[in-house]
Amino acid sequence: MAFELPSLSYGYNELEPHIDAKTMEIHHSKHHNGYTNNLNNAIADTPLADLSIEEILNGLDLNNKAVRNNGGGFYNHCLFWKTMSPNGGGLPEGVLLNAIDNEFGTFENFKTEFSKVAATQFGSGWAWLCANKGGSVEVCSTANQDNPLMPGISCSGTPILGIDVWEHAYYLNYQNRRPDYINAFFNVINWEKVTSLYNEVK
Ligand code: MN
Q1: What is the 200 CA–ligand 1 centroid distance (Å)?
Q2: Please, which residues have CB within 8 angstroms of residue 101's CB and are 6 or more apart in sequence?
Q3: What is the dihedral of CA 9, 89, 193, 175, to 10 degrees?
Q4: Which terminus of the chain is more solvent-facing, meaning fewer CB atoms within 10 Å of its CB: N or C?
Q5: How far, in Å, is the centroid of ligand 1 from the Cα of 172?
Q6: What's the gap in Å between 102 CA and the centre of ligand 1?
Q7: pLDDT given at position 156
Q8: Ligand 1 ion: Cβ-proximal residues, 5 Å cutoff
Q9: How many Å lie between the centroid of ligand 1 and the Cα of residue 175?
């Protein structure tokens, strides 16, 4: 049972001006498609082929570079597309806002911390908002296509929001201005979806 590239629930141009259509098209149809195909090739005819992507990542042997890079790439981008929306932005409501306030004091403090972690991830990687059983939230970052579900990563919990800070995610429109891209990302966050992911974890 091979993994499939998910289709997006919005058009490539619908996150403009925050994320441009060309970047979205290449990112989804080339980069994410590549991770998906390479993951399928890496797990074909192995016991991993019978597992969910979460099971594969939870039990990952970090020395298995093909599955680490492409399994991470497959999962990370699936989450990324789902947690953005043309109608995004603003603040979460209810339980998630409470959890953010409990951890960071205010939503603005959270935004500052998340943005700092995303901006200072050296080279390629991701910044995450993770939820823990019990309801607490935390911010962290990982290199390359690693993510908090993998064992032995200095980042725990279940990711409910992630920003891709690989240059392929922003370079066409923002060049070296990663902080501007991070700031723009906040205008497309689908907090309704992030909240439903939070409710599944807590
Ligand atoms: Mn990417």
Answers
A1: 25
A2: 107
A3: 60
A4: N
A5: 13
A6: 31
A7: 87
A8: 164, 166
A9: 15
Cα–Cα distances (Å) from 45 to 5, 20, 169, in that order, read 20, 38, 32
Q: What is the pTM of this model?
A: 0.97
> How far is it, in rounded angstroms, from Cα 25 to Cα 95?
34
What gap in Å lies between CA 7 and CA 148, rounded to an integer? 24
Q: Quote the ligand 1 centre to 166 CA distance (angstroms).
A: 6
Distance 8 CA to ligand 1 centre (A): 14
What is the CA angle 38-40-46, rounded to 5? 120
Full strand arrangement of the beta sheet holding 158-164: 137-143, 125-131, 158-164
Average pLDDT rounded to a whole number, residues 13-26:
98
pLDDT band at 154 (very low <50, low <70, confident <90, very high): confident
Rounded (5°) CA angle 120-180-129: 55
Residue that has been written with the tokens 């800070």 in this structure: 165
Separation of CA 73 and ligand 1 centre (Å): 7
pLDDT for 63 beyond 90: yes
Segment 21-46 shows an average pLDDT of: 98
Tokens of 41: 């090739």
Distance from the CA of 32 to the center of ligand 1, in angstroms? 7
Token digits of residue 20:
């441009």
Q: How remote is the CA of residue 169 from the centroid of ligand 1, in Å?
A: 6
